[in-house]
Amino acid sequence: MTLDHPSMSSRLPCALLLVCLLLPLSRVSCALPHQPAPHIPSLVAHEPLPLSRSRFSAQAHLDFTTHCNASCFHRGEGEGREKLTEQLAFETLYADGSRTLTAVDLDEDEASDWRDEPAVPVLATGRSRASARRHRRQKRQIYGADGRFNIRGDHFLLDYPFSTAVRISTGCTGVLVSQRHVLTAAHCVHDGKDYVKGARKLRVGFLIPPSSLGNATLLGTPAKKPLVRWVRVRRTRVPKGWIQGPQEVSMDFDYALLELRWPHRRPFMRMAVAPSARDLAGKRIHFSGFDSDRPGELVYRFCPVEDESNDLIYQHCDARPGASGSGVYGRVWDDGLERWERKVIGVFSGHQWLEIDGENRDYNVAVRFTPLKFAQICYWVHGNQVDCSKD
């Protein structure tokens, strides 16, 4: 019934961590956001075009690493409407192996005065902290002391927000964003050229604590690891921006949405356009995943945002392969509710070496939900733009 950490006795006390995690958001002391709520563009989907069946020839590579320089760091800032809507076209893979391609465009009423989200400011902390690690070329690093926590016990595994994390049968993590939809990383199901072998019969795993099956552990005995209930996926959607380009380009679109055959009964987490880090409560992000070095365990971590571009969130949250696809969330101000709410603002992708001004910096990276990406994913979930304006 506790959060478990290998060095808990010398680190943050469990009780204090619980206060940080479970304190009602209305009691969090934070300044109000600097920017107004972003405008969500309306997308128009064209008639899907049939494609040939997938060969499912790709191998899933969970340790995803890319390299980027100044030009790709600033790439999203100058993209025109035509280029971005081309990247936001999407493929749909169905359970029988068939697939379609759907082109999208902006609503005509918005197309004339459309402009992309302005570039977010680069945080000064990123340059100084990363310079000390320029020669440590380890993938998906643990930055200093391991700051991850194992989530154990019914009270935590079934409690929000940890209960929104699910397993993906290809070895990744996903997050529940509706009663039938799971968000994950695109590279967990597609390598940029073809779907991975495991995507042919893709499944989503829901954790079931042993005690819920009548196998409660006795006091003083080791806690059993949770079981997994697997549910088949009805269809998978991947943005064309992931499929069409080289690896460094498509990391900006490393996300996919899975639709389940049947609705689940777990709480899910709402999505939001990613604000600038300065407009996140505490300037922190959080995510829970199934890191490969802790098999069978749900692992939680949080950390400050170090840098950010138009499309990516750069941070040093400790993570290992298997955490890919985790829903990255922060406490975002909700104008309608007039309070801070946990919302998914991105997807954990992998590791990137960023070279700027002759200096190599290494980060763990999450994809940011820009207004266009949010509109696309919201359309996948709801099938219309009316409901997206309410999210």
From TrEMBL:
Residues 1-30 form the signal peptide. Keywords: Hydrolase, Protease, Serine protease, Signal. One of its GO terms (molecular function) is serine-type endopeptidase activity. Its EC number is 3.4.21.-. InterPro entries: Glutamyl_endopeptidase, Peptidase_S1_PA, Peptidase_S1_PA_chymotrypsin, Peptidase_S1B, TRYPSIN_HIS. GO terms for biological process: proteolysis. It is an enzyme of class 3 (hydrolase). It comes from the Eukaryota. The keyword Transmembrane does not apply. Belongs to the peptidase S1B family. This is Serine protease. It comes from Clupea harengus (Atlantic herring).
